[in-house]
């Protein structure tokens, strides 16, 4: 008889019943080839004595094994390991334990990647690239709406079927704030702007297609297009935004699949596309029937003047896919974005979204819809905008006072970040390394140029830092720039 | 002078300031070519009189336009439409309004789709394909954990940076319940199983690759592989699950990119892959270094006997990508799934997930981690399992009592659904049409065969219906099967 006492160890403290532990161990022994097909197991009385357990426990384990077809009860002969299991060689007991330490032995596609910031261990401050301040989030209203939905009779139906309320409320919100002329059929709700970018791009890009983006550009958009097989062509971004003449020249000479543009507070540089270039771009869109993703990720935050209406509100023949997000507007952990496009495009995009992410978080979507309807979102935006405006001004002042023009910047007209350019003799990577030693984590530049060398600049998200924090962070930065 | 009184209409009830409404309308007029570059605007006094507004309002509008570069203040001459705007032809005023009613004029990729059930208008009951009962969800514990996280000092950091707690807790949970030997490096958290399937498949499939699935198969997996360009080869599914001999034959003759298998409660048929076939399949995986997605979507619900350990717990050389979900286990609107694979695969998959969906809902993920740690999930599963077990038994009894063997089924050993086969003379599509008239919505079969003809069967999700509802639903079904 096999040394079952050694082979089968029972953990009496485990929350799993002992009979189940025994059954699972037997399965392991069969799989490992220790127990061969056709072998008989000791009777339950004998086995119970070996293992020092009650006989009923062993009987239960055997029943479990039989119900799973691993063993068969042979009349008057006892329990036999199923004979029709394929013959297997005995294997080391360790093999199963290391399954995920090895392999895989199949090959898989590489994903274009981005180096991430070091983990926040021992870190006091982080300069992010433009987060809202989650401490300002309208948590009370949010909780109130969630509770009221959960207590309503429609809750069950809602969780199973979802509802169109959010699309309807978003239609109103986008019409009122962005001058779009749309109906709910023109909206797909996504998990944040990123999923909207991925979905729209996946609907368009085939391997080798030319896609135009700015230089520099929002890196997660670039990576997304690369992942989908695009050949990215870059055009310069200057103080007026993306170079639209360069875009037109490309349209004249090449088959261009798509243009990705961030006309408000361009990511990362925060410049706004000038009116002249907007007009010219609309003309290009109409002439070349150019497909455009307009990523208007932080339209809702504007300080100096009202925001410029998006390309999507003008005459583009349905060729502008307008993308944005309420994630930053809400400032909670919830991620909700949108894609606006002609109805037949949205219908297809919705199918694709379903293949990636069966459905959204229905409760959260409904609560957000209620907050759009009640005006809570608008009230929150008003309040947050005022605070972020002050923080932008404070940051500009601190940078001028404490850094004596060592770093260059233009105050952004809106958005949650400021673009800070470093002089050549002061590489941002060295500054970032020094800062880390002083408890400040910031991007060492690799997030702004993906191909070629990293940009010598920093996208300084100011919205999530309060006055005291801003002062401390700029203080550390000043020390590191000496 | 242009008839500005007609061209510029102000809505005094709008929540947007009047100066902004005027500025936006001017932009429209410039974009539409009504106001040409170089044209001068009437002085603010004149314009104010025309529009019947206070002069300061017009001044504010002009300032707004100037700050956006649409107009330029010319010394002593007043405001001029910027001269460097591209010359444009006058256009109908309606063009901007219909931008999203037309187009797009670019072409885009089709997405393999699925006809959805009709909307639930006037519907009393829905037979879904295996949802949990959201009325049983542990809402109190959930709310408690969320509140405690929101009130803790780590909340801000958590929302910005996320945490690894959920991966750690999932590692423990999967080790304890599934016998996996893994570390947090082997887990990617996703939005439900669907995103894990899409991500893993997108890492593997290139256009034209052969992918093996069952016939029938979970349709959203099939659609996902098709979307990614796979050539799907189907092998039969019988009472013992997928035909693994057919799989081996294919591996011998063709380059197979991947196999998708649902060994527990196969979707849609609910059969379990027999022990013999599991062993054989593991051998095939090792021999052919076959990449396998093991979709174990409702492992946590088992009634008759303990569930069989997944392929992922055995010796597969790291080639089994194990996918599952806590969405059904929790029964809230929250979607959280997982992908288990070797660490270097997970690292790449994590990058891809980030391109589709920048980050998860950090608050919800942390709350779920806390519920795994406190044992609340396990307690809930225990309670829910008992209730679903009773509902399964009741459904079987009702089907036998009220349908007199007109429909065929095998009680499923676990899961949240039962596979009901209709006889040839009773097409499920006709039954579904009759049922809709009686207030019952059910799939007319198109969800079970995608290519070829739809299956004459129904996946009857019993978990979300209580005793009374089950009786009523089966009552309606019996009427429609006469």
Automatic annotation (TrEMBL), chains A, B:
<dbReference type="InterPro" id="IPR015421">
    <property type="entry name" value="PyrdxlP-dep_Trfase_major"/>
</dbReference>
<keyword id="KW-0238">DNA-binding</keyword>
<dbReference type="InterPro" id="IPR036390">
    <property type="entry name" value="WH_DNA-bd_sf"/>
</dbReference>
<dbReference type="InterPro" id="IPR051446">
    <property type="entry name" value="HTH_trans_reg/aminotransferase"/>
</dbReference>
<keyword id="KW-0663">Pyridoxal phosphate</keyword>
<dbReference type="GO" id="GO:0008483">
    <property type="term" value="F:transaminase activity"/>
</dbReference>
<dbReference type="InterPro" id="IPR004839">
    <property type="entry name" value="Aminotransferase_I/II_large"/>
</dbReference>
<dbReference type="InterPro" id="IPR000524">
    <property type="entry name" value="Tscrpt_reg_HTH_GntR"/>
</dbReference>
<keyword id="KW-0805">Transcription regulation</keyword>
<keyword id="KW-0808">Transferase</keyword>
<dbReference type="GO" id="GO:0003700">
    <property type="term" value="F:DNA-binding transcription factor activity"/>
</dbReference>
<dbReference type="InterPro" id="IPR036388">
    <property type="entry name" value="WH-like_DNA-bd_sf"/>
</dbReference>
<dbReference type="Pfam" id="PF00392">
    <property type="entry name" value="GntR"/>
</dbReference>
<dbReference type="GO" id="GO:0030170">
    <property type="term" value="F:pyridoxal phosphate binding"/>
</dbReference>
<dbReference type="GO" id="GO:0003677">
    <property type="term" value="F:DNA binding"/>
</dbReference>
<comment type="similarity">
    <text>In the C-terminal section; belongs to the class-I pyridoxal-phosphate-dependent aminotransferase family.</text>
</comment>
<dbReference type="Pfam" id="PF00155">
    <property type="entry name" value="Aminotran_1_2"/>
</dbReference>
<dbReference type="InterPro" id="IPR015424">
    <property type="entry name" value="PyrdxlP-dep_Trfase"/>
</dbReference>
<keyword id="KW-0032">Aminotransferase</keyword>
<keyword id="KW-0804">Transcription</keyword>
<feature type="domain" description="HTH gntR-type">
    <location>
        <begin position="16"/>
        <end position="84"/>
    </location>
</feature>
<protein>
    <submittedName>
        <fullName>GntR family transcriptional regulator / MocR family aminotransferase</fullName>
    </submittedName>
</protein>
């Amino acid at each position: 008889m096999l040394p079952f006492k050694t082979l089968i160890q029972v953990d009496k403290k485990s929350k799993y019943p002992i009979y189940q532990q025994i059954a699972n161990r037997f399965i392991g022994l069969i799989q490992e080839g220790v127990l061969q097909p056709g072998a008989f197991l000791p009777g339950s009385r004998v086995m119970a004595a070996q293992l020092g357990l009650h006989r009923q426990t062993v009987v239960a384990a055997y029943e479990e094994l039989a119900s799973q077809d691993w063993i068969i009860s042979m009349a008057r002969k006892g329990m036999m390991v199923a004979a029709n299991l394929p013959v297997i060689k005995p294997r080391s007991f360790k093999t199963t334990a290391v399954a995920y330490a090895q392999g895989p032995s199949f090959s898989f596609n590489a994903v274009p990647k981005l180096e991430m910031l070091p983990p926040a261990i021992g870190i006091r401050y982080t300069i992010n690239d433009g987060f809202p301040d989650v401490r300002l989030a309208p948590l009370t209203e949010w909780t109130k709406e969630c509770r009221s939905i959960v207590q309503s009779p429609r809750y069950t139906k809602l969780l199973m079927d979802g509802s169109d309320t959010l699309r309807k409320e978003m239609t109103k919100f986008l019409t009122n704030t962005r001058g779009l002329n749309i109906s709910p059929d023109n909206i797909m709700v996504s998990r944040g702007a990123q999923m909207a970018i991925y979905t729209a791009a996946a609907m368009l890009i085939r391997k080798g297609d030319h896609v135009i983006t700015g230089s520099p550009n929002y890196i997660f958009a670039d990576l997304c297009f690369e992942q989908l097989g695009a050949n990215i062509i870059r055009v310069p971004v200057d103080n007026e935004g993306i170079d639209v003449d360069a875009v037109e020249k490309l349209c004249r000479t090449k088959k261009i699949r798509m243009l990705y543009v961030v006309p408000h507070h361009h990511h990362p540089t925060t410049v706004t596309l000038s009116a002249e270039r907007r007009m010219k771009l609309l003309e290009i869109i109409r002439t070349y029937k150019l497909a455009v993703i307009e990523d208007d990720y932080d339209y809702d935050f504007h300080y100096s003047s009202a925001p410029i209406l998006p390309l999507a509100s003008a005459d583009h023949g349905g060729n502008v896919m307008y993308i944005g997000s309420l994630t930053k507007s809400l400032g909670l952990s919830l991620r909700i974005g949108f894609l606006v496009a002609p109805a037949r495009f949205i219908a297809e995009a919705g199918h694709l979204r379903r293949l990636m992410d069966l459905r959204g978080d229905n409760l959260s979507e409904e609560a957000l819809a209620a907050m759009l309807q009640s005006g809570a979102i608008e009230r929150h935006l008003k309040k947050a905008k005022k605070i972020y405006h002050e923080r932008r001004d404070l940051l500009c002042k601190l940078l001028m006072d404490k850094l004596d023009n060592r770093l260059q910047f233009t105050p952004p007209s809106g958005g949650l970040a400021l673009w800070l350019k470093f002089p050549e003799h002061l590489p941002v990577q060295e500054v970032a390394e020094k800062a880390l030693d002083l408890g400040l984590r910031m991007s060492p530049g690799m997030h702004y140029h993906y191909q070629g060398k990293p940009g010598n600049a920093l996208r300084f998200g100011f919205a999530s830092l309060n006055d005291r924090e801003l002062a401390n962070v700029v203080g550390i930065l000043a020390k590191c720039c000496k």
